[in-house]
């Protein structure tokens, strides 16, 4: 497993657009905001860099399933490698693994009523551990990471994704959802952001 994030505001959109798939550029162009376009293109650019650096893998295009999750398939229709992309604010993040995985980065926003959102997406046990905006974003991004690993959309009830801290420092977590279990953790992120990941650890008995 390997993860990385980059500051996309420092990338040249014309240069990186030449390094990603036409499908990605077409999807990015649907965004109205130039920054949203750069985020989307920057995420695939990061994926390509990581796959080339780690495995020497290159690919022509991403294939999207009916849930919108991107894949890189081999000639037999199997995933070449598992990966997940995320972007928010000025950053894009990527994780690659030989197991289903997910990553999520979110910029902290004072405009969001985090206590109200937390009640909608968190269990009672999780709510008892959330006492700040930063702690809320930690749980939110972990749940988003699990959904990405599962390949499910946001219509999935996020309270069904159970997050459990494994240490008193709040860095390592376990998660369960849809019959699967995951190990996850907090990645040191730029100030004002939360960044977390999960990786499949097994099926629930």
Task: Please give a structural write-up.
- With 205 residues, this protein is an alpha+beta fold.
- 31% of the residues lie in helices and 29% in strands.
- The chain contains six helices and ten strands; from the N terminus they run E-H-H-H-E-E-E-E-E-H-H-H-E-E-E-E.
- A hairpin with a 2-residue loop joins strand 4 and strand 5.
- Helix 2 (22-28) packs antiparallel against helix 3 (34-55) and helix 4 (114-121) packs parallel to helix 6 (133-150).
Structural class of the helix and strand makeup? Answer: alpha+beta
Strand line-up in the sheet with most strands: 6-10-9-8-7
Separation of termini?
A: 25 Å
Number of helices: 6
In the predicted model, the low-confidence regions spanning at least 5 consecutive residues are: none
Rounded radius of gyration (Å): 17 Å
Strand fraction: 25-35%
What is the residue-mean pLDDT, rounded to a whole number?
91
Find the count of extended strands (DSSP E, 2+ residues). 10
Helix-strand pattern: EHHHEEEEEHHHEEEE
Largest sheet: 5 strands, antiparallel
Shape: globular
Estimate percent helicity. 25-40%
Layout of secondary structure:
Elements (H helix, E strand, L loop, with lengths): L1 E6 L5 H5 L4 H7 L5 H22 L7 E2 L5 E2 L10 E7 L2 E7 L3 E7 L6 H8 L2 H4 L5 H18 L11 E4 L6 E6 L2 E7 L6 E11 L2
Antiparallel strand pairs: 1-5, 2-3, 4-5, 6-10, 7-8, 8-9, 9-10
Keywords:
205 residues; three-stranded antiparallel sheet; five-stranded antiparallel sheet; alpha+beta; globular
Summarize, please.
The protein has 205 residues and is an alpha+beta fold.
């Amino acid at each position: 497993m390997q993860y990385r994030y980059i500051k996309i505001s420092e990338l040249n959109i014309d240069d990186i657009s030449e390094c990603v798939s036409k499908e990605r550029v077409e999807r990015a162009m649907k965004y109205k905001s130039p920054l949203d376009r750069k985020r989307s293109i920057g995420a695939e650019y990061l994926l390509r860099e990581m796959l080339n650096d780690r495995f020497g893998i290159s690919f022509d295009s991403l294939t999207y399933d009916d849930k919108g999750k991107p894949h890189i398939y081999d000639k037999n229709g199997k995933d070449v490698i598992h990966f997940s992309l995320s972007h928010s604010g000025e950053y894009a993040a990527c994780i690659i693994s030989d197991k289903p995985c997910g990553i999520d980065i979110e910029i902290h926003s004072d405009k969001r009523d985090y206590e109200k959102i937390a009640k909608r997406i968190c269990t009672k046990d999780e709510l008892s551990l959330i006492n700040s905006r930063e702690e809320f974003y930690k749980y939110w991004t972990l749940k988003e990471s699990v959904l990405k690993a599962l390949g499910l959309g946001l219509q999935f009830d996020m309270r069904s994704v159970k997050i459990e801290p494994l240490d008193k420092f709040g860095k390592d977590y376990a998660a369960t959802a849809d019959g699967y279990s995951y190990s996850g953790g907090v990645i040191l992120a730029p100030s004002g952001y939360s960044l977390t990941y999960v990786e499949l650890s097994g099926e629930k008995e």
